Amino acid sequence: MQIVILGPPGSGKGTRAQIISKIYGIPVITTGDMLREAAAQDTESGRIADFYMKKGELVPDDIVVEVVEERLGRPDVEGGFILDGFPRNLAQARALDRVLKRKGVSIDAVLKIDASTDSIIKRLSLRRSCPRCGAVYHLKYNPPKKDEVCDECGSGLIQRDDDREDIILYRMIVYEEQTRPILERYENMGKVRELNGEIEIDEIPGEVRRVLGDLA
Ligand code: AP5
User: Fold this and answer.
1) 15 near 115, Cβ under 8 Å?
2) I need a surface site. Which of 41, 58, 105, 135 has the fewest CB within 10 A?
3) Does ligand 1 have an atom closer than 6 angstroms to the CB of 10?
4) Active-site residue 103, yes or no?
């Protein structure tokens, strides 16, 4: 099963990707996490990525495509994968087509999530993430068992640099201008399936099974 998840920042892409991964046993490829990891390692492309991410802008395509292409070359994606945060513009969508064609596979479904600006701000301002294993929490809707500590691996949780309200609003503009237009392309290909970004977290597994069940 090859899945792409598209939606504005804070719509719940990462949360759904983790749930789909647990249900269907396929890995999640999150470009945001991979770029943050490169930034933490202070590589040359990581420094460039960090510069753009802090402003809420898209990282240059050549850097992102190289990271995704390398990841899609690893053996664990042979049974399928979930792309969270890629592609984000037309050039990336075309690059993905080329990479998948070489692998002899194609996208089965593009999951489209939307959520209101109000929900997005409330979610992102109280989001906490684990810098070690990538687990995501919300201090009100999905809190860790112990304050600011990851349930999965025990590391201290952090707030992302780009989860400031002014940067969140800018990321939403970037999504509308650069990413939403590629949904039309996938709609024309008959790939788009809608998910409701406003439902409660514990309702997500049921919705995922309803929407993806025929592909399993
Ligand atoms: P990225 O890391 O992909 O961030 P994003 O797209 O802005 O999305 P988020 O991770 O903020 O939100 P999400 O939709 O995954 O929500 P989540 O599930 O965490 O990208 C960051 C940056 O990296 C970009 O700005 C760009 O610079 C760069 N980048 C990444 N990919 C790139 C690419 N392809 N090309 C170029 N640049 C790229 O949920 C949010 C919170 O809400 C959590 O706390 C969660 O617990 C909570 N929550 C989730 N669902 C619910 C619910 N239903 N009810 C209540 N709370 C909920």
Assistant:
1) no
2) 41
3) yes
4) no
Pocket test of ligand 1: the residue of 11, 15, 112, 180 to mutate, having most ligand atoms within 8 Å of its CB, is: 15
Q: Would you say the CB of residue 31 lies under 6 angstroms from ligand 1?
A: yes
Q: Which of 41, 26, 139, 137 is nearest to 83 (CA)?
A: 26
| The one catalytic residue among 16, 88, 128, 191 | 88
Residues in the chain: 216
Judge whether 180 counts as a catalytic residue. no
Provide the whole-model pTM: 0.94
Q: Which domains does the chain have, with CATH numbers?
A: 2-26+79-115+178-215 (3.40.50.300)
Q: Return all residues near 87 (Cβ < 8 A) that are at least 6 apart.
A: 4, 93, 95, 96, 182
What strand order describes the sheet that includes 192-196? 28-30, 81-84, 2-6, 109-114, 192-196
Nearest residue (by CA) to ligand 1, atom 29, is 32
Express each pLDDT in 99-149 by its tens digit: 999 999 999 999 999 999 999 999 999 999 998 888 899 999 999 999 999
Q: Whose CA is nearest to atom 42 of ligand 1?
A: 123
